Task: inverse folding
């Protein structure tokens, strides 16, 4: 059986500065994961990745990829420890 | 120390200008990331978990006060006011902005520094004995040869795109303080015997390294006359460059080639290649050696009394000072002088981190008391290689004021830790918080002293930047079903008795690691023959079983295990 599609958001780093950003509404890139656009289906993810590719092409962001998130509590929360630390904006120490 | 000549200045400045142009073109869209990435990596710029990270080369761990001040300035101006000293004797800045990096590199170039070859499949910065030139057990100052290797390997056209990165280490002393057995090539200066009596040369070791497939380096050449160092290195690199596995990143290091061929066959091929090389075209002319050696001429120090009355009196009345002197101050080759280790391992702090203020404080000490000399150790600490023993009290007071006076060199709280998942995008697990928790558990200095010499190393993944394989206690972060777990190894050693630690058993979650270390230390302290028996010696005598039993319960006989399964 195919794995059910996990909710995902698209993340990257801003090219000029390097800070972590997430793709949000209106093609905006934000540092607050809670404001990120969530893809609930493969088609929605493809649409977000399309927008991200355009942002890469205009030198806005670099290193685009999608991460699995949990949306049961409303705002998306990363599933992996790595993305949790990344979303926190700095080290845990 | 070595000073750039006209060529060095012109080369480094031209690289800065090139990179400035490359960044401009990248930001303007004239270069894609695929085109730009190799260029930024060749200049030490990584994209890490949170931001860009700039890795600055500190050639063989040698710094002047002016250079350390400049690093402090760069960290404060363009980063967040902190630098991280690494196990490669380099400095990493974790919050660099791409748009600022050309200015950072230009600032570095002004003090004869750069970030070239701190990444990529090239010959990296050579690790050297941090006590080079001042150790009493030294045959010859290895910094001269470290500088020769630096000049030879910098943008060497044949070795800029090797199968994989390449790391060398060098010592001129009897005691290995550069972990030469865990490098691709390890060099130890030795006195010749028999036909070579009266000469100084190198014992050459090859194929050491940690990571996914750890190996202790094997002897390649027992005595290489020192004047042939470069042609022999060139021959060795050529064999590796030709036969190293470019098809598989996990098998591309020289250690895999050496162990696949067998060291005897590898040696045969190196010797055959060496024979073909026209040595005078590659080996360093004697005059050039003399020119470089002048930069490392010993200081003109007049021997002084070994003991200073004021220092002795302070030791008798100030336990903190006495501990610091006992653990961090080492014998110097000139009587009346000392080598001072400056700990970047105050329990609770990030191992290897120094703030801009701390860097400036250390630079000031080097200027005031240390003949403008500084070293970085692969244990992520700093060293003042030459101070007068009469100045020890004043130096200690200044270090205390900047929280740099922890007297824990090579004790359990002198933990080597990589950045781990707090910064590194390759990590499985965090290393720094685990190091902090263990250091705080053993923060009582009397207890750390009682435990005695103990190397504890932590890596956040199998790449082993925290050298966990060579820790007496090694801790490796692993991903266990999406959670951070830690595997413990015992019995590793980075020194002359180099050994790879053995895995003790199943991994632990982070919160259980300090207790596990406590139990391991408990087995040692209750089982040692006397305080003179170190942790490593006791482990080698006792074997792994009592340590395993302390962590996992009594080992069961095969029949008991069968009975359990029925
Ligand atoms: S050992 Fe792994 S986690 Fe640690 S710095 Fe190296 S690559 Fe990163």
Result:
């Amino acid at each position: 059986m195919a794995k059910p599609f996990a909710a995902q958001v698209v993340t990257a780093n801003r090219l000029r500065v390097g800070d972590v950003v997430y793709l949000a509404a209106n093609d905006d890139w934000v540092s607050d994961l809670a404001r990120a656009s969530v893809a609930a289906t493969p088609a929605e993810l493809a649409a977000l990745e399309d927008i991200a590719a355009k942002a890469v092409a205009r030198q806005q962001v670099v290193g685009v990829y999608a991460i699995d998130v949990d949306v049961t509590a409303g705002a998306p929360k990363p599933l992996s420890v790595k993305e949790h630390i990344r979303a926190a904006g700095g080290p845990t120490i | 120390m070595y000073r750039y000549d006209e060529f060095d200045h012109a080369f480094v400045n031209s690289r800065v200008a090139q990179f400035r142009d490359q960044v401009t073109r990248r930001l303007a869209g004239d270069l894609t990331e695929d085109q730009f990435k190799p260029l930024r990596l060749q200049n030490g710029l990584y994209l890490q978990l949170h931001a860009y990270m700039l890795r600055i080369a500190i050639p063989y761990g040698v710094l002047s006060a002016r250079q350390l001040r400049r690093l402090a300035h760069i960290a404060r101006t363009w980063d967040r006011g902190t630098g991280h000293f690494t196990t490669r004797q380099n400095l990493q800045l974790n919050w660099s902005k791409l748009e600022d990096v050309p200015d950072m590199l230009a600032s570095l170039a002004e003090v004869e520094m750069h970030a070239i070859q701190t990444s990529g499949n090239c010959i990296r910065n050579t690790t050297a004995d941090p006590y080079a030139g001042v150790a009493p057990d030294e045959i010859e100052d290895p910094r001269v040869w470290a500088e020769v290797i630096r000049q030879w390997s910098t943008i060497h056209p044949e070795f800029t795109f090797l199968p994989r990165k390449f790391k060398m280490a060098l010592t001129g002393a009897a005691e290995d303080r550069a972990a030469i057995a865990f490098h691709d090539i390890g060099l130890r200066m030795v006195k010749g015997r028999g036909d070579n009596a009266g000469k100084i040369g190198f014992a050459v070791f090859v194929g050491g390294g940690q990571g996914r497939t750890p190996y202790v380096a094997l002897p390649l050449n027992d005595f290489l006359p020192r004047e042939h160092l470069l042609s022999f290195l060139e021959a060795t690199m050529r064999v590796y460059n030709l036969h190293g596995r470019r098809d598989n990143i996990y098998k591309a290091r020289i250690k895999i080639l050496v162990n696949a061929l067998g060291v005897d066959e590898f040696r045969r091929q190196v010797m055959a290649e060496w024979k073909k090389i026209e040595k005078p075209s590659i080996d360093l002319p004697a005059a050039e050696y003399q020119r470089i050696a002048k930069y490392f001429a010993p200081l003109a120090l007049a021997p002084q009394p070994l003991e200073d009355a004021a220092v002795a009196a302070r030791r008798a009345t100030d336990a903190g000072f006495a501990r610091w002197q006992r653990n961090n101050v080492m014998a110097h080759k000139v009587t009346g002088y000392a080598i001072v280790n400056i700990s970047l391992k105050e329990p609770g702090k990030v191992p290897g981190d120094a703030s801009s203020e701390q860097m400036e404080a250390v630079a000031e000490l080097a200027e005031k008391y240390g003949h403008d000399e500084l070293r970085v150790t692969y244990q992520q600490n700093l060293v003042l290689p030459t101070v007068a023993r009469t100045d020890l009290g004043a130096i200690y007071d200044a270090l205390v004021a900047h929280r740099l006076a922890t007297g824990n060199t090579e004790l359990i709280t002198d933990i080597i830790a990589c950045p781990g998942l707090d910064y590194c995008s390759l990590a499985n697990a965090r290393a720094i918080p685990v190091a902090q928790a263990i250091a705080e558990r053993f923060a009582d200095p009397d207890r750390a002293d009682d435990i005695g010499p103990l190397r504890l190393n932590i890596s956040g993944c199998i790449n082993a930047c925290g050298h966990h394989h060579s820790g007496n206690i090694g801790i490796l972060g692993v991903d266990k079903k999406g959670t951070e777990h830690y595997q413990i190894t015992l019995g590793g050693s980075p020194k002359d008795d180099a050994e790879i630690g053995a895995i003790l058993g199943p991994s632990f979650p982070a919160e259980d690691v300090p207790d596990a270390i406590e139990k391991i230390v408990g087995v040692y302290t209750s089982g040692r023959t006397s305080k003179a028996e170190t942790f490593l010696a006791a482990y080698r005598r006792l074997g792994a079983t009592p340590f395993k039993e302390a962590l996992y319960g009594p080992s069961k006989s095969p029949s008991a295990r069968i009975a359990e399964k029925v």
User: Anything to note?
Assistant: The pocket of iron/sulfur cluster is lined by residues B 418-420, 424, 426-427, 459-461, 463-466 (CB under 6 Å). The longest strand of chain B covers residues 218-225. Chain B is about 40% helix and 15% strand. The interface with chain A takes residues 26-29, 33, 47, 49-52, 96-99, 350, 421-423, 425, 427, 429-430, 432-433, 436, 482-484 of chain B (CB under 8 Å).
